[in-house]
Amino acid sequence: MSTSGSTNFSTNRDALIAGALRLCGAIAQGDTPTATLISESAEALNMLVKALQADGMPLWALKQYSVPLTAATASYRIGLSQTINTPKPLKITQAFLRETSSGLDIPMTQLTRFDYNFLGNKTTQGNPIQYFYDVQSTYGDLYLFPVPSTLAASNYTLQIVYQRPFEDFDASADEPDFPQEWYDALKHLLADRLAPEHGLALAERQDLARRAKTLKEEALGFGTEEGSFHMQADLRNW
């Protein structure tokens, strides 16, 4: 048996749009979408991509970022053109201090807004052991407690693990910011969104919606982390 030996198949924005338009009956096989169809479908595709961010934290969208600590600074604004200039994290799932000399990592505890508000003196300085992430529309504010002391800022960096936003489709040749197992799901999910605008019959729309849902669930299921789950009481005093 002879195989290609290749695993680098990809697609792009306009190819996804054309496939979705065929699925929902907007164009026939072999037809080229008009510029208006491409523009309107690209908007729907980008809205779909943003909606998919709400489905959780796939492994391929988790990143780690090193944040320099500043003495006596409790909060750090994260976002494009902000103090920490990187796309706004959707969620911060983990944070830890890393000792610069030894590489030793010290885990930190995530707080809810309720828990953070109930802390006592929020200007207390020391080695941060807790954090609260307050996400806004275009940026997020990361609060540390205790506030980094001069010694902490000199000897540690803050490491955060976070869910990054999915990148937009801006140009016709832009490839999906998704792994290959998502390509078919993206095409069907877009077709499902476009179908009402293009008069697809109700029975066919329902069948398309079922297929899109199945493909999405399969892609989501493949992108979750596998491992053991442990629970224990938190006996720390803070």
Description:
The protein has 238 residues and is an alpha+beta fold. The chain has helices spanning 13-23, 35-52, 113-117, 150-155, 183-194, 202-222, and strands at 62-68, 75-78, 91-99, 105-107, 109-110, 125-126, 130-135, 140-145, 147-148, 156-163. Strands 1-10-3-4 form a four-stranded antiparallel sheet. The chain has a four-stranded mixed sheet with strand order 2-8-7-5, with no helix packed on it. The longest helix has 21 residues, at 202-222. The mean pLDDT is 94.
List strands and helices in order, with pairings.
Elements: H1 13-23, H2 35-52, E1 62-68, E2 75-78, E3 91-99, E4 105-107, E5 109-110, H3 113-117, E6 125-126, E7 130-135, E8 140-145, E9 147-148, H4 150-155, E10 156-163, H5 183-194, H6 202-222
Parallel strand pairs: 5-7, 6-9
Antiparallel strand pairs: 1-10, 2-8, 3-4, 3-10, 7-8
Helix pairs in contact: 1-2, 1-5, 2-5, 5-6
Number of helices: 6
Helix content: 25-40%
**Approximate shape:** elongated
Structural class: alpha+beta
Radius of gyration: 23 Å
Strand content: 15-25%
The H-and-E topology, N to C, reads as HHEEEEEHEEEEHEHH
How many strands in all? 10
Specify the biggest β-sheet: 4 strands, antiparallel
